[in-house]
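Retro notes
What went well: the complex prediction finally ran end to end.
Inputs used:
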Amino acid sequence: MSNLLSINGLSVEFATTRGNLRAVKDVSLNIEQGESIGIVGESGSGKSVLSRAAMGILHGGNVHKSGSVIFDGNDLFSLSPEDLRNFWGTGMAMIFQDPMTSLNPVRRIGTQISEALRIRQGMSKADAMAKSVEMLRLVRVPDAEATLKKYPFQLSGGMRQRVMIAIALACDPKLLFADEPTTALDVTVQAQILELLDDLRKSLNMSMVLVTHDLGVVAGHTDRVIVMYAGEIVESAKTADLFANMRMPYTEALFKSIPTLDTPTGTRLPTIEGRVPDPTQKDPGCLFSSRCAYVQEKCKNEHPPLMAENDGHLYRCWFPIQVRSNQ
Amino acid sequence: MRNRNLSIGVLLSAAWLFILLFFALFGPLLPIPDTLFSFEDSLSVGVFSPGHILGTDSNGYDMFAQLVEGSRYSLLIAGISVIVGTVVGSIFGILAAFKRGIFDRIANALFSVVLSIPNLLLSITLIAVFGSSPDPSNPVPPSRRLIVVIVSLTIVIIPIIGRIARSTAMSWSSRDFVTAARSMGMTDRQIIVRHIVPNVLPALLAIAFLAIGVVIVAEGSLSLLGAGIGEKTTWGSMIARGRAEIEYYPHILFVPIAAVAFTVIACNRLGDEVRRSLDPREARL
């Protein structure tokens, strides 16, 4: 077992005026060296909170975390803030969803890439700038030298996201969290960025956690997919296995709501009716029961545990969809 | 780098402040009559009189000489209190926004308390307590009075700047790039210096320039109420004296008022310009 990151029973609650908001509930998962994992779920499913909590950057007086996160043999929750900081950038790095807001608007690109190198690796200004050019070339930004002197607003969204990737990779992290890296980009750029991340991950032997709401995005770029719903893992399997044998009705519903080219024009795109349950309320039954097409009495009263199949396929459902039986 | 033309307004504002600064610094070296020399044969002559370009007041004191001396003290008071107030206010405001929690609550409460007291009342109280003496035969030294006036105006500036620094810094510190910087292992201090301050600074400088105008006016109000720096002439004290004679010799009042007005307008205009030129997004538009 070469687990780079293992999350055990991680729960995250936010104290709010309406009570405790349970954003992540008892999540356990392992990430191996060089592995690429997709975390999928709709808005409010806790996927961003999970990735931030795993990295340890979630902080504030109203955050309550339990469980443990072990990175490279170190329990992150027991580290002091100073020690924890040593893992950021060099051990783990994160790319954020919106490249429009994740770069400082009043500072030049070169300064922003090189500052991590100067602070974390003690490089001289000249060395850091040289490395920055190298990083920009690595993420395939054309005319890297000129880009160093530009401000973020002079770059397109795709270019900014490349710059963000360059910053995140500058200190050679072992694990990269990509929190919806392509959501703010248009589809053609999205494909390029995913391709780039994939290439970089393979060439640098890095692990990656790709957080997205788009099953289509994870399909081609991950080894394993974790589906989250209302803060829980509801299904987890190897990517190919998941797409072939969905067990959880939620995964199926997500999958069905991807538009495809072969449905006739005028067909209504299936949606999942209703909304994610209020995370401040505790529900006795399956959290998806109010929206599930196959709901039964048991689903409303008993919370299903995470059940495992032989090949490591996990799902949280009393009445899992059988292999291609009811489609 | 920047090829944007400065507007006439900006140039005029800069020129006005430059001239003021020149007279304030080198006034005593220039051939200007003493402020307390009374031209007894030309009392209350109007503007552009021979020998008295801005006229004289009813004591026969040269208005131009008074204006120059007034600029020394008005600018000194405004400059020091705005610089100190801005630095202190920004530090508290930015730290409050960044640290949140108890520090933020205390800082914010202090700002609110000071802001809730009318500025003039606060200044007058401070001056009455620390800058005046109950014994007429043993008055406080003028330098102490000057310091008390400056400190009292600084105390007025701190919460104004502090509030704005806090709210601006708060909106910037919740941006993704701050989280991104943290996730790259930067310390809070590095994040504040490198990411928050450059974004907050333009707004603060613009407000600081505005505050110069506010302080000049506030100092004038204090003088008008007899709580100014006392012995030396300031623009405020000129206005206070000229007030009595507005019906007969309006120029005695209007000359210092015009000086205050031009200075306030110039400061505002320049503050705007500074903000724009510091912001790369606006500078290149």
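What we learned: The two ends of chain B are 13 Å apart (CA to CA).
What to try next: split runs per interface for comparison.
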